[in-house]
Amino acid sequence: MTDRQLATLVRALRAPEPLESSDAALWTGLRRHTQARIGLGRAGSALPTRHRLELQAAHAAARDAVHSPFDPDVVASALPGVPTVRVRSAAPDRLTYLQRPDLGRRLDDIDRAHLPRDTCGAWDDWDVVFVVADGLSSRAVHDHAAPVIRATTARLPAGWRVAPVVLAEQARVALGDDVAHALGAAMVVVLVGERPGMSAADSLGAYLTYAPRPGHTTDADRNCLSNIRPPLGLSYDTAAAKLTSLMTRARELGRTGVSLKDDLEGGVVGLPVAG
Fold this sequence. Notes:
By secondary structure, this protein is α/β, with parallel strands linked by helices. It contains 9 helices and 8 strands.
């Protein structure tokens, strides 16, 4: 940005009067590169009516995303031929889920007992289990979870043992640890609806954890891909490419998290573990 453009921005921010046409054109150009609400101008001491209504609409969409119920049938129907299992967390309803994050991290005891295990009953029955968790945006899960699973499994090398997809209601990221442990899966990918913001109510996150241990695994043990929501966020193909690269390297190294880095230039690399 040139000094002249910077001075124009500062003048526009400080000016109580409406933006001049040249200032408005500058803000319009900048808005093409961000979803943030910038250069909205003012009407007296408040936002212009149009921008205020847009903000209220975005807030309503975020609230709807948090409170809209999760429908596992929507995801299951988008995964034809893929076996699925449905579970719930220990949170009995949405209000409890929002007030008690700890309950959203634990499986319902009855559902845990009904999860299918392979015949060996060992830790390495499955290489990976995908858990679709409603999180804080069922809309994100309904729209994006199935395409990410399809794109990712299509990229996995031959020989990977993929467990039935687990559809989890009232679930948070750490519920995947409980699911993987109960199933006997070496790693878990949790696809979860991320907390809505004022510019995105349908953002999906993917959390990869190797050898998860319920109650012991921390966020430092996970790798995360965020903002999966084409066309405004990460595309399905890009997310799948990054995720399969991380999964392949995690299996080779036997770890995920801070010791597994997604190097944008050189691909996925493992970092030395202290001690």
